Amino acid sequence: MKKKSTSILACLACILTCILIASGMLTLTACSSGDSSKKPDSAATSNENENGKTEAASPDDNADSATDDKEANADFTAGQTVTDPSGAEVTIPKQVDSIVVLAPALSEIVTALDLGDKVVGYDTYSAGIEGLPKDAPTFDTTNPDMEKLSALDPDMLLTSNLTLYDQDSPYQPLVDAGTCVICVPSGDDFSGIKSDIRFLASALGVSKAGDTLLEDFDAQLNELSKIADSIPDNERKSVYFEIAPAPNMYSFGNGVYMNEMIEWIGAKNILSDKQGWITVEGETVVAANPDAIFTNVSYVDDPVQEILSRDGWAGISAIADKNVHYIDNNASSQANHNIVKAMRQMAELLYPDYYKSK
């Protein structure tokens, strides 16, 4: 288990990411060097419609997705130039013996691919993730020590769009020294998460392990969606999910993987008519009158009680019924295969007669 301080930092990182995305401050060139105007390599893309717009898989489509993933996933070859998830061109190294990871969501993918023993450094938010070496040097996620990073001379550096977001090609010295720098922005939906896992597995030369991880992910999603399909419309709950508390409340609308998590288990996000990561007014929640309220805030003493005692909210159904719950921060705030843990937690709280009996 992660230490409480690590969980707090992870939550703060999630909030900072949301704010940066919402304000348009993140740029592709901040992730890695190269031409960011190109579309992702075919091995790293999700399904696209005829207009080129990425579409998330629906529960009905998901049955065959594991097979599709397996057919699409293959190791990249040494020296091959591909386009990473941020849109930048990268060259696959001859061999990957040392990896630095600067995002907890990516650290969890790397360890799930059984490559933790190759990690020589990681961000402070990843500390405590099972499978990572405990004695490896750590780095500040948003502003890593570049001299210390260069001294490790890793074969591959995995980062997100949170690191050094305001700088142009910050990792160019590492690229010039031969490090393959891959940037993986946080996935917008399940399809994007799967695409990122597929790309990383291929880039790291472990596509078969990626196939296995994706098949397990799909199996769990299918299980949840089948149960959700059995819930009558008149029993479906409305939800408000808070990721930053009062007085500066923060949440999300459509186009965010957390919204898809809620809908996938048979519930409705009260803010689904909004787009992306958003600030929230208390009056908006009161007017929507959600059946349940979830929070993954882990940097206040008792986030659930704080919500239950919030001024002006006594008339909300979720408050009156004390249907306010804390959802695991790590599982809900990292865009990777582990989101199913948070989904199952929410599902069992919302629909215990359906999910707990299965």
Question: What is the secondary structure topology, with strand pairs?
Answer:
Elements: H1 4-23, H2 65-72, E1 81-83, E2 89-91, E3 99-101, H3 104-112, E4 119-123, E5 138-139, H4 146-152, E6 156-159, H5 172-176, E7 180-183, H6 190-203, H7 207-229, E8 238-242, E9 250-252, H8 257-264, E10 268-269, E11 277-279, H9 282-288, E12 292-295, H10 303-308, H11 317-320, E13 324-326, H12 329-333, H13 339-350, H14 352-355
Parallel strand pairs: 3-4, 3-6, 4-5, 6-7, 8-10, 8-12, 12-13
Antiparallel strand pairs: 1-2, 9-11
Helix pairs in contact: 2-7, 6-7, 7-13
The SSE order reads: HHEEEHEEHEHEHHEEHEEHEHHEHHH
Largest sheet: 5 strands, parallel
Overall 3D form: globular
Give the neighbour order of strands across the main sheet: 5-4-3-6-7
Mean pLDDT: 84
Question: Proportion of β residues?
Answer: 5-15%
Instruction: Please provide the count of β strands.
Output: 13
Helix content: 25-40%
Counted by DSSP, the helix tally is 14
How far is the N terminus from the C terminus?
27 Å
| Structural class by secondary-structure content | alpha/beta
Radius of gyration: 20 Å
Runs in which pLDDT lies below 50 for 5 or more consecutive residues are 1-14, 17-30, 32-71
